[in-house]
């Protein structure tokens, strides 16, 4: 048998740079890798650099993350950094702020370029990155602390009203009412509820018979009572109750009393208040849960 005098090895290089050795006696080459690097791939989707993640308690759409913005919420002179989806409603924002501020959702008033309605999206009210949002509302503990006295005062007021003659017939009110409707009084409308106008309510009289106007500073949670002599700024949270009664013969106007303390002497009285604004005044000062 013929034998080969020697065998030789050919060194081959693959396109990838791996070394291949083969012997002429072998039918198939043996592939030997000089270096093997094992890498694990991460297939998880990462948010783009600079994007904002949304709060965990906000529902996320199936097709991706919601667009979120960062802004500042101001409540009782305290500032809170908030991040929230731009296409969520004001009502959802209130729910998110409930735990942050300690103010129940139903007691919150969100102010941004005016009063923001619950059904509006943050995008619709024009909220933008870095904006400042004012939230007005009392914490639940504060509400509960005054709710019992308020209920008692209302009950006492009801009992007193049932036993007394109408306000416009009582001596201290009659002297003002008998002067008649002021020439500059705002028109009164019966059986209608209108929102507060963007300007002060004017053309009314106070208990001294002087001209008086009411300005509702919702963003400051204040009621401004202006007269010729001065403007008094009253925190709405200090107003315990509001009573009102139509004026006989002029039912489109009311006598309205704002209760500041526990006695009748601590009331501010206003005469010739247009009837269509009475409910809105109570809602703005006391909130719909009290009014």
Describe the overall structure.
InterPro entries: UBFD1 (IPR039120), UBFD1_C (IPR057455), Ubiquitin-like_dom (IPR000626), Ubiquitin-like_domsf (IPR029071). One of its GO terms (molecular function) is cadherin binding. It holds the Pfam family PH_UBFD1_C. With 291 residues, this protein is an alpha+beta fold. The chain is built from 4 helices and 14 strands. The strands form 4 sheets. Strands 5-4-7-6 form a 4-stranded mixed β-sheet, covered by helices on one side. It has a 4-stranded antiparallel β-sheet with strand order 8-9-10-11, with no helix packed on it. It has a 3-stranded antiparallel β-sheet with strand order 1-2-3, with no helix packed on it. 19% of the residues are buried. About 16% of the residues have low confidence.
> pLDDT under 50 segments (min length 5)?
5-51
Shape: elongated
Could you tell me the strand content as a percent range? Answer: 25-35%
Question: Helix and strand succession?
Answer: EEEEEHEEHHEEEEEEEH
Distance between the termini: 117 Å
Task: Going across the biggest sheet, name each strand in turn.
Answer: 5-4-7-6
Estimated radius of gyration: 37 Å
Work out the helicity level: 10-25%
Alpha plus pi helix count: 4
Mean pLDDT reading: 77
Number of DSSP strand runs: 14
- Main beta-sheet strand count, sense and barrel state: 4 strands, mixed
Structural class: alpha+beta
GO molecular function: cadherin binding; RNA binding
Region (Disordered): 16-59, 149-173
Protein name: Ubiquitin-like domain-containing protein
Domain Ubiquitin-like: 69-142
């Amino acid at each position: 048998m013929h034998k080969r005098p020697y065998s030789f090895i050919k060194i081959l290089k693959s396109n990838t740079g791996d070394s291949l050795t083969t012997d002429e006696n072998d039918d198939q080459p043996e592939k030997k890798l000089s270096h093997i690097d094992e890498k694990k791939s991460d297939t998880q989707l990462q948010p783009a650099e600079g994007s904002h993640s949304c709060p965990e308690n906000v529902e996320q759409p199936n097709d991706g993350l919601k667009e979120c913005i960062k802004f500042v919420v101001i409540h009782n002179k305290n500032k809170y950094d908030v991040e929230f989806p731009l296409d969520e409603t004001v009502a959802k924002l209130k729910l998110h702020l409930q735990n942050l501020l300690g103010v129940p959702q139903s007691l919150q008033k969100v102010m941004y370029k005016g009063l923001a309605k619950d059904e509006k999206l943050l995008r619709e009210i024009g909220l933008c990155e870095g904006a400042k949002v004012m939230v007005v509302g009392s914490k639940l503990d504060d509400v509960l602390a005054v709710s019992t006295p308020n209920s008692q005062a209302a009950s006492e007021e009801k009992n007193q009203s049932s036993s007394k003659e109408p306000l416009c017939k009582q001596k201290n009110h009659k002297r003002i009412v008998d002067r008649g409707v002021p020439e500059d009084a705002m028109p009164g409308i019966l059986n209608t509820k209108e929102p507060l106008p963007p300007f002060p309510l004017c053309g009314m009289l106070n208990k001294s018979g002087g001209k008086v106007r009411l300005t509702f500073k919702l963003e400051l949670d204040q009621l401004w009572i202006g007269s010729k002599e001065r403007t008094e700024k009253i925190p709405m949270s200090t107003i315990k109750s509001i009573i009102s009664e139509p004026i006989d013969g002029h039912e489109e106007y009311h006598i309205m009393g704002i209760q500041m303390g526990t006695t009748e002497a601590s009331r501010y009285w206003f005469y010739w208040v247009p009837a269509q604004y009475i409910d809105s005044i109570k809602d703005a000062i006391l909130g719909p849960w009290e009014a």
